[in-house]
């Protein structure tokens, strides 16, 4: 799989809510959704969960969102 530089920046944020991920990347939610869709397509999977599982199996790390009480 070959990802663009923007997609590579988005990879660790795939497990975060779109609004938070977009803010952290300094892009609109629509732009983040576009990158996410491209990543899912490039992994050859049908959905985000499968894409994350595929990427995790290849060693990709993901950021976690802390739960608030």
Description:
- The chain is mainly alpha-helical and 69 residues long.
- It has helices spanning 5-10, 18-25, 29-43, 48-57.
- The longest helix is centred in the middle third of the chain and has 15 residues, at 29-43.
- It is globular, with a radius of gyration of 12 Å.
- The mean pLDDT is 93.
Topology (SSEs and partners):
Elements: H1 5-10, H2 18-25, H3 29-43, H4 48-57
The number of helices is 4
Work out the strand percent: under 5%
Rg, alpha carbons: 12 Å
Low-confidence stretches: none
CATH architecture: Orthogonal Bundle
Structural class: mainly alpha
> How many extended strands?
0
In the CATH scheme, the class would be Mainly Alpha
CATH topology: Arc Repressor Mutant, subunit A
What is the gist of this entry?
This protein has four helices and no strands. The protein is mostly helical and 69 residues long.
Core attributes:
mainly alpha, Arc Repressor Mutant, subunit A, globular
């Amino acid at each position: 799989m070959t990802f663009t530089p923007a997609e590579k920046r988005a990879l660790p944020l795939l497990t975060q809510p779109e609004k938070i991920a977009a803010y952290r990347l300094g892009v609109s939610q629509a732009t983040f959704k576009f990158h996410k869709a491209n990543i899912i397509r490039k992994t050859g999977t049908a959905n985000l969960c499968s894409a994350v599982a595929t990427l995790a199996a290849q060693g990709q790390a993901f950021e976690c969102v802390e739960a608030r009480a």
